[in-house]
Amino acid sequence: MKTVRLTMAQALVRYLTAQKIVIDHEEVPLFGGVFAIFGHGNVTCLGEALEPVRDVLPTWRGQNEQSMALAAIGYTKMKKRRQIMVSLSSIGPGATNMVTAAAVAMANRLPLLVLAGDTFASRIPDPVLQQVERFDDPTISVNDCFKPVVRYWDRISRPEQIIGSLPQAVATMLDPATCGPAFIGLAQDAQAEAYDYPEAFFAETVHRIPRARPDADSIREAVSLLRKAKKPLIIAGGGVHWSLANDAVGAFAEKHNVPVAETINGRTSLVHDHPMNVGPVGINGSTSGNALAREADVILAVGTRLQDFVTASWTLFPESAQIIGLNAARFDAAKHRSLAVVGDALVGIEEMSDALTDWQAPGSWSKKGAKAYGAWNDLIDKNSGPTNAEVPTYAQVVGAINRICDPTDLALTAAGGLPGELCQNWRAKTPATFDCEFGYSCMGYEIAGAWGAKMADPDRDIISMIGDGSYLMMNSDIYSTVLTGHKLIIVVMDNGGFAVINRLQNAKGSKSFNNLIADCKIENLVEVDFEKHAASMGALAETVHSIGELEQAFNRAKQADRTSVIVVKVQSHEWTPGDAWWETGVPEVSTRKEVRAARAEHEEGKGKQRVGV
């Protein structure tokens, strides 16, 4: 057996560069690059190994470990889970900064390879810089914090251990059923140790994303249910994007006359004007999508984990409705007494369509969906249309940008009020033009994720829409995009704090408290100059005061040669109306009559929940 003597860090990097994947009949690197912040736990060994291959496996320096891992997530979302970025940190705080991002990837079923330095396997220098000691268990380090939020976890204490560990991590991330983040902790002394590795370990390996075919019996059962349905509804989730099943779902819907509603992660599975599109569904959904969901007798849930914002905390679907769960993950396919059709979304939808032959749902049902969708669009026209208002709403800002953007521009957001406003008001001109991180609803994804998305697809404009709260939480990758030349268009909507949580607080009967900045414990009410702040990081920046000025600024940003930040004040108390219930804790006892009234509404909502068994 031929061997080559390398340090563990050198061997790890060589292995990563040898992994390829087939995309559109072309072999490309599986790992698109490394986001890294170096420290004493990774710079001397992994830094030494990465530097010679920087043209093959580029290393990008982020400004914060969490944000660079979020950028890695934005990258892989744009690549439809077919290429992966590595997020690399030193030990201690650098590592734990990435735990939140790992949770984002875990909740959204996204691949992310997290590598972090660790303490010494020998333990001789203990306690080392940044080591958190457990008095009762010296085997634990802060890297154990990753265990609940990754699909694969390992700690390398001997150089030869990567021979078994790395292939398992890759297999986990590429399997649609187990897809999620992988974490590997790297002991500092083991990184430096040399080993005679088999040359075969570094042979070029070409991966393909498997398309698991559903069990034939489950397809037959699903087809039997659909044939009996009078009011079937497709709910398109994020798995439609990951499986590249957009066209197949649209074709199925048209052939069989079945309306399609979209989840937040499944938004833009279809274009806005697709004849079977009835809008988003759930708490951030449309009156049309929700109306059909409330009447549906068979629900074909494709590639969705059925999060509470989709199901309205399980009050949206009739108790009698039969769910067919078409999903690569058995865990998601089997939820709420669903008929589990475990397999690839594209293959599954095509096989169901073939088996249904020329069956169609009643025309009266699709006509009802089209009529409801027309009424919803009339509402959106009124809600997000042109305005001369001195202070516009979120919806009006979204509508203005949507009207003038290019068909392939990507709208990207995450937490706060914008997920709802974008989900409801963004009209897809082409498929896959919407990215809302709402699986974990992580404030800070908006700019970092947009950086990764732009890196993955430099030929289209990425429009990051962000509230003032998220901006203040994580904005430093504006500087990263200027340094690296990954131009973004960032629209900062300033509503004076965490306005959407203030809305929830008021809706559940409480006074405004600690959400809007004016309602916090403060000595001086100071407004942040977001324009100057962004400009200080090298971005082009301007503040606008009307929708007309916003449109002009957006057109300038389209022509700009670097990241542009547009700041606009928006209303803090006006929102797109919704018609779905969401379960949050409401005090059972309170001196406030408003809280007691909210508790009564809460009890009423609880009585409508579909209980999964």
TrEMBL record:
Keyword Hydrolase: yes
Listed Pfam families: TPP_enzyme_C, TPP_enzyme_M, TPP_enzyme_N
GO biological process: inositol catabolic process; isoleucine biosynthetic process; L-valine biosynthetic process
InterPro entries: DHS-like_NAD/FAD-binding_dom (IPR029035), Myo_inos_IolD (IPR030817), THDP-binding (IPR029061), Thiamin_PyroP_enz_cen_dom (IPR012000), Thiamin_PyroP_enz_TPP-bd_dom (IPR012001), TPP_enz (IPR045229), TPP_enzyme_TPP-bd (IPR011766)
GO MF annotation terms: acetolactate synthase activity; flavin adenine dinucleotide binding; hydrolase activity, acting on acid carbon-carbon bonds, in ketonic substances; magnesium ion binding; thiamine pyrophosphate binding
Family: Belongs to the TPP enzyme family.
Name of protein: 3D-(3,5/4)-trihydroxycyclohexane-1,2-dione acylhydrolase (Decyclizing)
Organism: Bauldia litoralis
Biological classification of the source: Bacteria, Pseudomonadati, Pseudomonadota, Alphaproteobacteria, Hyphomicrobiales
